[in-house]
Specification:
Layout (H helix, E strand, L loop, with lengths): L1 H33 L2 E6 L3 H7 L4 E5 L3 E6 L1 H8 L6 E2 L11 E2 L2 H5 L4 E2 L1 H14 L4 E8 L7 E7 L11 E6 L7 H16 L4 H9 L1 E5 L4 H4 L40 H12 L2 E8 L4 E4 L11 H18 L12 E3 H4 L6 H7 L5 E5 L11 H17 L4 E8 L9 E4 L9 E2 L6 E4 L4 E8 L6 E7 L4 E3 L2 E3 L15 E4 L8 E17 L4 E15 L5 E9 L2 E9 L1
Parallel strand pairs: 5-6, 9-10, 9-11, 11-14, 12-13, 15-21, 15-22
Antiparallel strand pairs: 1-3, 1-4, 2-3, 7-8, 8-10, 12-14, 15-18, 16-17, 16-19, 19-20, 23-24, 24-25, 24-26, 26-27
Helix pairs in contact: 6-13, 10-13
Length: about 550
């Protein structure tokens, strides 16, 4: 009997070894061919899943399996856990989709655009609707493909910054999740073509500054070349998951251990240049809406507001979609960390560091849909996408100005005994407008800025309505009160020799440093996310202004290069 059991055990061990060896060969082939491998392994518990999510890119899980992606370095870490795994066919290689070079065919449905058709279509939107639409090049990637990150701004006065909330939709930062890519092109078409004839669309365009970036990872989507999205990959051209590459409120500036990718840097600067009140990032592979936090298991100050907004999105989808659609995690709504924890995601970056309100919308369990199914998914979702945008126009809003000069101020708007974990908002320094999205209730709100007296108000908010409160802040120097030199920020040395470095120390976490010359031209932008930074002073001799954005507001200092 013992000999028999030993023979069975030896046979099982040999078979397992042979199976794992075969899977390892497949891993090598996939990494060599695609730069990433798609695989699954048995699911045990959430604790294990949250630990592994720091090493590989978890995609989804069910009661039996976890599905994930990994590049070469990440898969080597995964193998240290000695878990059984199976290599899978990449989702984007399960079908061959219909492609077209003709932008008109894209808008008529049943086609994905080639990369050239995408560029032409984005330009066509701007050309056909010059009164409300502008094409923005966020950046051009430096590799040989030179693909672009593009966005369209849609607004009644697209060349003027107004007292309106800025709203942002982005999609397909995972290159093989292409449903949102096409739906965003059709949303642009819907907004621009119906403006002036549809009351709902006209109201949105007249009362918001809308930005839409349909394709945040063009190198991943067009991995096999500009003519097809078949064979697209999750990661970028350097095999990095962009949605793990952002600064993280819990794990710091580089949670994935990689340098910030070009796409990440370009997008962070784009977000710094704007003041997005609300946004959403579109994905695929599941069917749900995911709200903050992804990195923390604790809830946000705005948890009740998030649940209200997310259920509005999902309830509308359930009304117009087929039975069983958008029901993941029970009812299609989940807190991010309650689903599974990730670090370095865009959602948490936008909420914590930019004081925005961003969720993640997973549109389809199938990552790369057959082209003839795209119109159906548009019909399931477009009303919800519009409703979500409307939420940016509600809540507490107004303009904050200097009571003496009347000029706009960047001030902190904070709900006392309510806000936490960077949930306060700041007014836009260019025009002074602020937008604090809130669930119905009564709030004590303070308005503060460096070198100004703080003001406090009690306000009541109702759902799906807006309340306007304009605030004039009084300088500390007014009525004989001497304004103190702000000692929360120090720049050393000052003046500084051209070839030396500038050291900036802050009592608060520095979000970014901008340096302008004497006539207002920007000469440097530098994201930081710490209380100290050192910058080479390789500028021309002269007077400069250093604008230092911190978690307590923005401070401006003079700097002399000699």
């Amino acid at each position: 009997m013992k000999l028999f059991l030993f023979a069975i055990l030896a046979t099982f061990t040999f078979c397992s070894f042979a199976q794992n060896s075969n899977q390892n060969l497949l891993v090598k082939e996939e990494l060599a061919r695609r730069g990433e491998v798609y695989f699954r392994f048995p699911f045990t518990d959430k604790t294990q899943l949250n630990q592994l999510s720091k090493e590989i890119s978890i995609d989804k899980f069910d009661n039996a399996w976890v599905y994930a992606y990994a590049n070469e370095k990440e898969f080597a870490k995964f193998q240290n856990h000695a878990l059984h795994f199976e290599v899978l066919t990449a989702p984007s290689e399960l079908i061959t989709v219909e492609m077209t070079d003709d932008p008109k065919k894209v808008l008529a449905w049943d086609y994905y655009p080639t990369y050239e058709a995408y560029l032409a279509l984005m330009q066509q939107f701007a050309d056909d609707h010059p009164d409300i639409c502008r094409l923005i090049t966020i950046g051009t990637l430096s590799n040989t493909n030179k693909r672009k990150l593009l966005a369209l701004k849609i607004s009644k006065n697209p060349d003027i910054q107004e007292y309106e909330p800025e709203f942002y939709y982005s999609s397909t930062m995972h290159g093989d999740e292409t449903t949102g890519y096409i739906l965003m092109l059709h949303l642009i078409d819907y907004l621009t073509s119906k403006y002036g004839s549809d009351d709902e669309v006209t109201h949105l365009v007249d009362n918001m500054e809308i930005y839409i970036c349909p394709l945040q990872n063009p190198d991943g989507t067009y991995r096999r070349g500009n003519q097809s999205v078949t064979g697209s990959v999750r990661y970028n051209a350097k095999n990095v998951d962009i949605n793990r590459n952002y600064p993280d409120p819990r794990d710091g500036a580089h949670p994935d251990g990689n340098a910030w990718q070009e796409e990440t840097v370009m997008m962070m600067q784009f977000y710094e240049n704007h003041h997005f009140t609300m946004s959403a990032n579109l994905h695929g592979g599941a069917e749900l809406i995911n709200y903050p936090w992804d990195t923390w298991t604790k809830i946000t100050a705005d948890d009740a507001w998030w649940r209200y907004v997310c259920h509005e999105y999902v309830d509308t989808v359930h009304h117009y979609g087929p039975s069983g659609y958008f029901n993941d995690e029970g009812n299609g709504v989940t807190n991010g960390a309650a689903w599974y924890v990730i670090t370095g995601g865009q959602q948490d970056y936008m909420n914590y560091f930019c004081q925005g309100r961003e969720s993640t919308i997973e549109l389809s369990s199938t990552k790369t849909l057959p082209a003839n199914q795209l119109e159906s998914f548009w019909n399931y979702n477009y009303r919800s996408l519009l409703n979500y945008m409307k939420q940016a126009t509600y809540g507490l809003k107004g303009i904050i100005t200097d009571s003496i000069t009347g000029l706009p101020l960047e001030a902190k708007v904070e709900c006392i005994l309510f806000d936490k974990d960077s949930s306060m908002v700041f007014s836009d320094p260019q025009v002074g407008n602020y937008h604090r999205l809130l669930k119905a209730g009564s709030y004590t709100v303070t308005f503060s800025a460096p070198e100004y007296k703080t003001k406090t108000f009690t306000v009541s908010i109702a759902d799906r309505t807006s309340k306007e409160l304009n605030v004039r802040l009084v300088p500390l120097s007014y009525n004989g009160i001497q304004a103190k030199e702000e000692n929360a920020i120090s720049i050393f040395p000052n003046p500084v020799a051209k070839s030396n470095t500038i050291e900036i120390n802050s009592a608060f976490t520095i979000k970014s440093v901008r340096i302008f010359d004497a006539i207002g031209n920007s000469v440097l932008y530098h994201p930081v996310y710490s209380k100290y930074t050192s910058i080479p002073a390789n500028f021309q001799v002269g007077m400069y202004y250093v604008k230092i954005a911190t978690t307590n507001g923005t401070y401006t200092k003079k700097l002399v290069i000699q």
